[in-house]
């Protein structure tokens, strides 16, 4: 059984994790007409905004209650009320997602009560805008928990409760934070190929896909509509991607009775087969020829790629669900997990990671544990560790700011797994040093007998 090793250092060295409020804001960015609002200081918001802009290379709508010293001591309810009313009058969002920060959480304010009072006091002014609260202190959890809390809060606040008439073709999908724009688009295409109608919550593929609007838009544009969230109870089934999305799925089930199926990973032949089989069972339709063809391509890629993976030592640092996804992928390809580092011990999925131990830590721990590995796998902050160790780096997760197109990289189902195999195999091939003629000489380390050496010297 894998051992979960707690963090022992007093400070992070080259931090691995991003904060809970950032994860919640990312989830709110997947909703059409949304405006994430950080309840805290301007510095908290600015730091998250910089990471978002560097990763997505897009203009990101993100606002703050701008708590100052006086509000921090006396309470921030007035700042929260003013920020919500200003956003409503100036940007007219369909949803305001309030993400608390360590500054306000440490004080222990009643945020839910404050927002309830604001809704009641300004019911007419806030008509047409949902205000959703996600309690996301920076001092615990990470981006994974923040994303899940925001989705849970949206379902709890917006979704219409009670058993409702089910639409037989409608499928609710709750994707994990680590699914890219390309992953979610591919997920939608796969579901639609079976004649089903997916509703994805949240859907960053509609709002963070790199398109340029024909006019200036102050909120998010594209993504899941508030009305779609409200009517989730009419779905035939809910498909959940990632262990951290279990809680919002359970809440949806309690509110509406919609059954759910959890996929802890969608990478790899086995996971993709299970997903496709489920879609076929729900729809009653055979697997389309195009999907069968992509499966055959993955089988060929597995044959072609396993020569490059066999016996390789991999060091991974990522959020728990992404760590599990990547570790199982590499082990299935014949590699060994030499080091596994993650951000928090709050996820049960860590018990299933195929490694001897999982270290709760940072990139500094990855560098220490990954010495001798053939490949480092983490986000862009791992580039210094890779340089120090002389080991190639595969960039995954958030943030990736020194490469273009990270959101358009496919990583799931048949096609995404095939692309992952090719990417890793090409990294290994590119980092392999060609042998010199001297290195190929089988006699280069053999000692020459004295009589042969003296005869050779006599000839020369």
From TrEMBL:
SUPFAM superfamilies linked to this entry: Helical backbone' metal receptor
Record flagged with keyword rRNA processing: no
Pfam families: Oxidored_nitro
Nitrogenase/oxidoreductase component domain boundaries: 19-428
GO biological process: protein-containing complex assembly
PROSITE patterns: NITROGENASE_1_1
Keyword line: Nitrogen fixation
UniProt-annotated stretches for the region Disordered: 437-460
Keyword Metal-binding annotated: no
Any one GO molecular function term: nitrogenase activity
Pathway participation: Cofactor biosynthesis; Fe-Mo cofactor biosynthesis
Biased composition (Basic and acidic residues): 441-453
Family statement drawn from the similarity comment of this UniProt entry: Belongs to the NifD/NifK/NifE/NifN family.
Role played: This protein may play a role in the biosynthesis of the prosthetic group of nitrogenase (FeMo cofactor).
Protein name: Nitrogenase iron-molybdenum cofactor biosynthesis protein NifN
